[in-house]
User: Which sequence fits this backbone?
């Protein structure tokens, strides 16, 4: 059968992929994609625990919340990315270091 | 006579009033107010005459006295009494002195109206003259040493002012300081004596001192290690040395001749210098008890002899008289020392008269001789000569006085000087130390020298051919002028021996009707201190008559009645009388030889004694010693060194040195503050800066870097808390 | 007239207020206002003399004023006079009154000068009148302030140095006095009479000891020296005298007069009012030391004076010498000597004031004070011929300083000698040398300046004008009259001084 640990393993792989995108890629779009992957991994984790561990449906519900929040957050982040592109003519994240001392 | 305050005090108050009036309004008065001074002193003379008549003529008693006191200030409190009383004390000595002072002073005042006429400061002269006479009279009337001291110093001030009368002359300033300072040395000793007396007796009244002496209060007391009586006697005599120009303080008197001649006559011949002798006479019992009479005699005779030798070569007529004054004062002091109490006083009186006359006569001569080159007057005898014909009255006066001072019989000087010499001879003969015979021997030699130089002066001035034709021709022929000649002639009248003694030798038996025998030589007697323990002081303003005693202490013995002592005394007097007559005539004869008949040549004698001559010209180097060595090198050197020390060493290093120390301290402290304390404060900043520098490398501004850090921090935390 | 002392004390301050309100251009107005106030104060001091009851030895009860001032520390505003302070108060009133016409020709900001002068007058009166130690100390300190400015602004070439030296030196002494004052406050238990000078009298502290720096000292002997140094600097006593020549030479004439005539007396007054009555055993114990210091003053001052070539320095050193006599008189503690010492304080005030005023008159004309110039030539010559009125006053002042009988200086000196001879015979014998040298330097100065031909610069000088004669006259009269008839002053002081002598004799 498909067990809990395979779901966790999948979410773990997704999480790592997302993390590598966030930390490793220089373009802001890829960072946002990575962020979505991390969020989805977390949602998958919630659903998995909700299916295999408890009787209630809290995890499923929470995954819906995550989707909504991810969508909202993606909208805002994309708006910021557009603004960033308008200012700097590039999406290279290293240009966004105004707060450097 | 009723001795109330208003019968005695006016003697002092008249001249004092004249002083006050002349000082304030004198310049506006008619003739600058000289008549006020003359009138005042003449009024004093009348009062003095009244007292004299009462004491000497009416009372006929040597033990008569009047003593009135009033309290000057009283500071007593609780157990501590302190009172200073002032008062009058009148006895025969006082009465005679009063008469002499007022009489001589009146004549000198009169003469001054002639002598000082035309001087720009005519009025000022009389101001000082009046102040001086009032001080002298107050001194004579004083009953206590403190008031004697006060008036003594006041007279010193007047003398200072009068010597320095001609302020344009630098030399007058020097002479006036010299006089004041030299007498002040004596005054300081006098003051010490007063302090010591007050300490032991508790009072400074003469009567109290005598009583204390009689009661033995001085026994066993000592002051700074020496016996109190000796200390006091030496100190009081110190006053006399200063004021009466004795050795070693005689240097001021010759220089004092820079003052106007009437002032020399009054102050430096008749009165102020006599005050010193007067003090010693009054304090004679103390001197005897202190045992210093030998010392006094020696000082007196050294002074007399030394001054006489210096007078031999003087060419200024006033200088001769100055040295002769010092010499005669030496005689008086010698007289006190040898026990010739009465003769000293007699000599004081007779000397005052003839010396004043001599000075006035010299003044008369000087005044008449004009020097056309300097527009001044001539005082140098080498430029005089032959004035006998031009100035007969002055010559007559001077002749009488010169005869008197030389000790020629029938004149007053002989009466007094002979007795002193006789007593000195007696003193020498009975003294345990035979070398004290030097006192009478030198005394006789001095008498001869006196005769010599006085007649030398007379001959040089009045006899012979005039040595300076110009001066002689311009000299006015003398007409009898009241102010010029009357004083001279009246004074010379009183140089006749007749006035004083009815006998040739003063001891003998000729009886002249009016005068009566022996009034002068029995004027005063040595005070017997025991009598003073019962004497009363009368509070002033009570006018009841004072005590009088009837006994007389002096009488002449017949030859068979004399004790051995008196026999020797009589012998001494006889020898003395004869010797002094011979010596006087020898002196006159030598002077005649040298200056009239030209038998001896003075120049040859001068060159024969040339070293001594030089010493005489330098007045035995006393002035040189005092001025150049003692004061110039000694005192000024010390003072300059001390003042230099005070300013440059003590002030600069000890006091301002604190500034240097303080500067070092504050500079050091401020260095410490800046370099060390401040540095610690800076260290804290440095540490923070270090952290700042290191930690801000973390602020890259790149968001992915922040994510890494966040992830690592979280995982690290989770790992750590799990483990 | 119960509040007479208050009036005397504060009237000059009212004068200061009046001056502050006057615009500084009205120089004549300023001078007349100061003259008016000082004259009024002087008249009040004469009223004090009139109100004085000479039979009382203690404080005059009808004039004493006592109010609480700082109650938490038992400090009172306590004023009173007795026989010792009254002559000083009259002298102060007189001298300040005479200083105003003396300074008539001040050019530089007269408003400031006269305001400071009047302020000084108040503080000096305060010192002489206070009977509360704290109040006394306050006035003593405040006196330094106007003096500093008066010397430092209106003085001679080296004025800042002299002013600072004077201030710091005196302040050092005052600080020691402060220590003594506080010690006494604590020793008497901080109660209501701890600062009351009268209550502190009588030697209550003879048995106390105090531990300081590890060793034990007798309380009274230690603090006697603390107070002694404070007062001795003012007198000035020998080792502490060097500020005086500088201060006198650099100060303007009026200030020299005040300094010599009044301020120096504050030191000896301190001895009489504070040191001796509060510590009688210590005073008697150290009397010989004080007398020796007094003798050194007399001789040292006299010898140094003789070497001076500047007239003001000479008179300054002569002040040192005369105050030495006062110290000797105080040390001997007998009736004549202490009366003589207090009388000498008054007489020296008048005669030295005269001398300084005369020097000032000469300085106004000549702008130099050399008796002998540094190059050796004579500073003045022939003054007697050209300036006769000036000569008369100079002679009176000089001979008063000298101690000539008939003038006031002699009586006080004679009394001091009569009093000290029994106790300190050797010292007195040496001290009379001071009389001799005193005559020497004054007469030498007079001879140098007054005799001889009139020199070309002297020909330019004018004799004393009316104003100058008017302000010299009171002093001249005082000197002569009190020389013959010292009873007015002696009557005032006799009872109080006698009281003090009895107090000291019991120890």
Assistant:
């Amino acid at each position: 059968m498909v067990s809990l640990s395979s779901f966790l393993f999948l979410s773990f792989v997704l999480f790592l992929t997302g993390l590598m995108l966030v930390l490793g890629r220089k373009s802001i779009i890829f960072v946002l994609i990575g962020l979505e992957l991390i969020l989805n991994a977390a949602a998958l984790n919630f659903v998995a625990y909700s299916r295999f561990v408890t009787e209630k449906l809290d995890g499923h519900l929470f995954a819906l919340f995550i989707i909504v929040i991810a969508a909202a957050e993606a909208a805002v982040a994309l708006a910021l990315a557009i603004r960033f592109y308008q200012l700097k003519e590039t999406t290279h994240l290293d240009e966004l270091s105004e707060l450097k001392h | 006579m009723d001795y109330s305050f208003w019968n005695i005090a006016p003697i002092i108050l008249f001249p004092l009033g004249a002083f006050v009036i002349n000082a304030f309004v004198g310049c506006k008065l008619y003739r600058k107010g000289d008549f006020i001074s003359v009138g005042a002193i003449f009024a004093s003379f009348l009062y003095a005459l009244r007292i004299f008549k009462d004491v000497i003529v009416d009372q006929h008693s040597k033990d008569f006295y009047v003593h009135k006191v009033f309290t000057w200030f009283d500071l007593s409190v609780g157990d501590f009494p302190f009172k200073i009383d002032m008062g009058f004390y009148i006895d025969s000595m006082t009465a005679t002195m009063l008469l002499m002072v007022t009489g001589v002073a009146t004549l000198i005042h009169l003469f001054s109206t002639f002598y000082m006429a035309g001087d720009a400061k005519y009025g000022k002269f009389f101001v000082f003259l009046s102040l001086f006479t009032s001080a002298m009279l107050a001194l004579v009337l004083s009953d206590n040493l403190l008031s004697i001291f006060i008036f003594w110093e006041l007279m010193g001030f007047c003398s200072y002012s009068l010597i320095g009368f001609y302020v344009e002359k630098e030399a007058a300033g020097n002479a006036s300081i010299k006089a004041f300072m030299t007498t002040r040395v004596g005054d300081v000793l006098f003051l010490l004596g007063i302090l010591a007396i007050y300490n032991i007796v508790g009072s400074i009244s003469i009567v109290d001192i005598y009583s204390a002496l009689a009661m033995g209060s001085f026994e066993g007391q000592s002051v700074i290690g020496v016996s109190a009586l000796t200390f006091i006697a030496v100190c009081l005599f110190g006053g006399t040395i200063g004021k009466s120009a004795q050795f070693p303080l005689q240097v001021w008197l010759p220089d004092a001749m820079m003052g106007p001649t009437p002032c020399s006559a009054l102050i430096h011949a008749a009165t102020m210098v006599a005050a010193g002798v007067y003090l010693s006479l009054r304090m004679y019992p103390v001197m005897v008890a202190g045992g210093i009479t030998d010392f006094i005699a020696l000082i007196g005779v050294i002074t007399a002899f030394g001054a006489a030798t210096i007078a031999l070569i003087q060419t200024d007529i006033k200088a001769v008289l100055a040295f002769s004054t010092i010499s005669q004062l030496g005689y008086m002091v010698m007289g006190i020392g040898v026990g010739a109490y009465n003769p000293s006083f007699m000599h004081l009186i007779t000397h005052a008269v003839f010396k004043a006359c001599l000075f006035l006569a010299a003044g008369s001569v000087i005044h008449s001789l004009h020097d056309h080159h300097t527009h001044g007057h001539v005082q140098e005898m080498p430029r005089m000569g032959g004035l006998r014909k031009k100035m007969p009255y002055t010559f007559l006066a001077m002749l009488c006085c010169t005869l008197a001072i030389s000790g020629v019989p029938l004149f007053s000087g002989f009466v007094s000087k002979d007795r002193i010499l006789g007593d000195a001879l007696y003193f020498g003969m009975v003294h345990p130390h035979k070398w004290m015979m030097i006192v009478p021997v030198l005394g006789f030699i001095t008498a001869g020298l006196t005769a010599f130089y006085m007649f030398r002066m007379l001959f040089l001035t009045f006899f012979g051919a005039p040595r300076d034709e110009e001066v002689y021709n311009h000299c006015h022929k003398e007409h009898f002028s009241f102010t010029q000649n009357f004083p001279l002639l009246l004074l010379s009248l009183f140089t006749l021996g007749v006035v004083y003694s009815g006998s040739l030798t003063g001891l003998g038996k000729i009886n002249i009707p009016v005068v009566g025998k022996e009034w002068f030589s029995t004027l005063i007697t040595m005070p017997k201190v025991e009598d003073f323990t019962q004497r009363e002081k009368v509070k002033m303003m009570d006018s009841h008559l004072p005590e009088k005693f009837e006994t007389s202490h002096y009488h002449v013995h017949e030859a068979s009645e004399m004790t051995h002592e008196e026999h020797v005394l009589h012998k001494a007097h006889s020898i003395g009388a004869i010797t002094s007559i011979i010596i006087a005539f020898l002196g006159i004869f030598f002077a005649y030889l040298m200056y009239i008949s030209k038998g001896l040549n003075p120049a040859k004698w001068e060159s024969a004694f040339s070293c001594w001559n030089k010493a005489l010209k330098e007045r035995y180097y006393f002035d040189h010693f005092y001025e150049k060595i003692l004061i110039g090198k000694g005192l000024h050197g010390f003072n300059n060194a001390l003042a230099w020390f005070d300013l440059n060493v003590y002030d600069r290093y000890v006091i301002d040195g604190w500034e240097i120390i303080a500067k070092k301290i504050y500079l050091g402290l401020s260095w410490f503050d800046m370099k060390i304390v401040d540095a610690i404060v800076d260290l804290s900043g440095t540490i923070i800066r270090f952290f700042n520098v290191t930690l801000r490398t973390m602020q890259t501004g790149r968001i992915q870097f922040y994510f890494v850090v966040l992830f690592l921090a979280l995982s690290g935390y989770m790992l750590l808390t799990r483990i | 007239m119960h509040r007479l002392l208050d009036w005397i004390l504060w009237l000059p301050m009212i004068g200061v207020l009046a001056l502050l309100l006057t615009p500084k251009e009205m120089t004549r107005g300023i001078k007349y206002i100061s003259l008016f106030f000082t004259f009024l104060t002087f008249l009040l001091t004469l009223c004090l003399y009139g109100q004085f009851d000479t039979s009382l030895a203690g404080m005059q009860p009808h004039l004493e004023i006592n109010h609480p001032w700082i109650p938490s520390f038992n400090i009172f505003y306590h004023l009173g006079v007795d026989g010792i302070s009254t002559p000083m108060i009259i002298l102060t009133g007189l001298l300040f009154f005479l200083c105003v016409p003396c300074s008539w020709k001040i050019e530089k900001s007269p408003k400031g000068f006269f305001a400071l002068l009047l302020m000084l007058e108040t503080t000096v009166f305060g010192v002489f009148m206070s009977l509360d130690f704290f109040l006394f100390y306050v006035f003593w300190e405040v006196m330094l302030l106007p003096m500093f400015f008066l010397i430092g602004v209106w003085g001679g070439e080296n004025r800042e140095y002299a002013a600072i030296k004077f201030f710091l030196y005196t302040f050092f002494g005052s600080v020691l006095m402060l220590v003594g004052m506080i010690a006494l406050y604590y020793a008497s238990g901080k109660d209501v009479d701890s600062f009351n000078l009268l209550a502190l009298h009588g030697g209550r502290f003879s048995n106390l000891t105090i531990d300081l720096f590890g060793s034990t000292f007798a309380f009274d002997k230690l603090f006697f020296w603390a107070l002694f140094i404070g007062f001795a600097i003012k007198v000035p006593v020998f080792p502490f005298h060097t500020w005086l020549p500088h201060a006198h030479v650099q100060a303007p004439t009026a200030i020299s007069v005040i300094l010599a005539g009044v301020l120096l007396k504050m030191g000896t007054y301190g001895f009489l009012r504070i040191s001796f009555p509060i510590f009688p055993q210590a005073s008697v114990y150290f009397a010989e030391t004080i007398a020796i210091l007094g003798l050194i003053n007399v001789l040292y001052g006299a010898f140094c004076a003789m070497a001076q070539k500047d007239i003001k320095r000479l008179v300054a050193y002569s002040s040192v010498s005369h105050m030495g006599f006062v110290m000797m008189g105080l040390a001997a503690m007998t009736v004549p000597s202490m009366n003589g010492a207090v009388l000498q304080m008054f007489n020296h005030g008048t005669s030295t004031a005269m001398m300084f005023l005369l020097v000032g008159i000469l300085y106004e004309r000549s702008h130099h004070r050399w008796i002998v110039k540094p190059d050796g030539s004579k500073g003045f010559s022939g003054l007697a011929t050209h300036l006769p009125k000036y000569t008369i006053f100079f002679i009176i002042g000089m001979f008063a300083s000298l101690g000539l009988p008939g003038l006031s200086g002699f009586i006080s000196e004679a009394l001091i000698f009569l009093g000290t001879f029994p106790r300190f015979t050797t010292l007195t014998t040496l001290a009379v040398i001071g009389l001799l040298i005193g005559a020497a330097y004054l007469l030498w100065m007079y001879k140098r300046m007054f005799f001889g031909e009139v020199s070309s610069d002297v020909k330019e000088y004018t004799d004393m004008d009316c104003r100058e004669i008017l302000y010299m006259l009171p002093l001249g009269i005082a000197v002569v009259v009190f020389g013959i008839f010292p009873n007015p002053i002696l009557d005032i002081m006799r009872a109080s001084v006698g009281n003090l002598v009895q107090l000291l004799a019991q120890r």
